[in-house]
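Arsenate reductase structure dump, as promised
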Amino acid sequence: MTVTVYHNPSCGTSRSVLELVRNAGIEPEVVLYLKTPLNRKQLDNIVHHGKLPARDLLRTKEKLCAELGLDKPEVTDSQILDAIAQHPVLLNRPVVVTPKGAKACRPADLVLELLP
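structure tokens r here:
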């Protein structure tokens, strides 16, 4: 099973998710998204694969979210994904992608729904 974790090593939840995946006997592909940002097409693929609204990938606690007005309900999925592509710090970490789907795994145990 291919598992990709979009990871921020300074985030406790992200580290916990990585540990849960490894404890399931899976060595995931780890993408340090702050060093290797996702482009718009990759973000579109995650949203479609996970059948989720773009807002699920948005880190609303990030100060930049409010500064850019992304916390307003009228902001479109397209605008959110454009902003995340431009400012990777806005990605709600960690995001996990498996053949079962994709999601931002907050809290960490949400990752178990994506594992065998």
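The radius of gyration is 13 Å.
lmk if u need the other ones
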